[in-house]
Amino acid sequence: MSRILDQRILLLVISFSASLQSTKVLSEWKKCGDPECEKAMSRVQAITDYLGPDCRYLNFKTGEEIIVYSKLSRENENLWTGSKGKDFGYFPRDTVKVEEVLIGEEVEVITKEADFLCLHEDKYTFE
To answer: Which of 8, 29, 74, 86 is exposed most, by the fewest CB atoms within 10 A?
Structure first.
């Protein structure tokens, strides 16, 4: 009986760990302007105020300009990544309108764990 209980607990821990892992990564793939995702893809303007759910998201007000560097693809195509000033993060694509396209072709690349980290002072953390 004890052995069955131990196996169930182990399965529960494995299942819980897997579910936590899946919440960290928003998508396995993203589209960029180059393989390193360093080129700006487009310049967009916020059409609504947006306040993200955690530190991985970019907050902005209507009318602010954002530079887009990547777009999540496949599992979560609604989220784009961009910056305004020194702030950088994810935001829903339907909260902005494209003002200028800066690249000719998008390149799809696999995401990295570092794509989904929050920066708090000198430490990176997952939310």
So the answer is: 86
